[in-house]
Amino acid sequence: MTPVLPDGPLIDEAVGRLVRPYTVSDGRTRATSHFTLVTTVRATGVQTQGTFGLEHAQVLALCESPVSVAEVAARMQVPAAVVKVLLSDLAEGGAVVAGDAPTPSPDGHYARPDRDLLEAVRDGLLKRL
Known about the structure:
The chain is built from four helices and five strands, in the order βββαβααβα. The protein is α+β, with helices and mostly antiparallel strands. Strands 4-3-5 form a three-stranded antiparallel sheet. The protein has a two-stranded antiparallel sheet with strand order 1-2. α1 packs across α3 (80-92). The longest helix has 14 residues, at 115-128. It is globular and about 50 Å long. The protein starts with 10 loop residues before the first strand and ends with a helix. 21% of the residues are buried.
């Protein structure tokens, strides 16, 4: 049975956030994996080993399609440092990978970027500078 996840952080109108951001990462402020704000992450579909909390499940749900670390932090309304710690936990368990990892197409082949398209984008950007 899939747990029902709240749409956002647990917030009380009078008190504010019910669970402080660094509580969800057990007070850890440093990720064990290297993630930047623009790193794209995605869920692998692998069942993780170990115990993870509600926030881990929220991160995993947001990573069903490739998404940046900054986007996950914004949607969860927690500091990016906290999201990086949660993502590190999930990455160590094999549940998420950085988006730089190749993704096979439905037929099992790995797509390569179109060089002409990339060069056209580069040329367009250079003209604007």
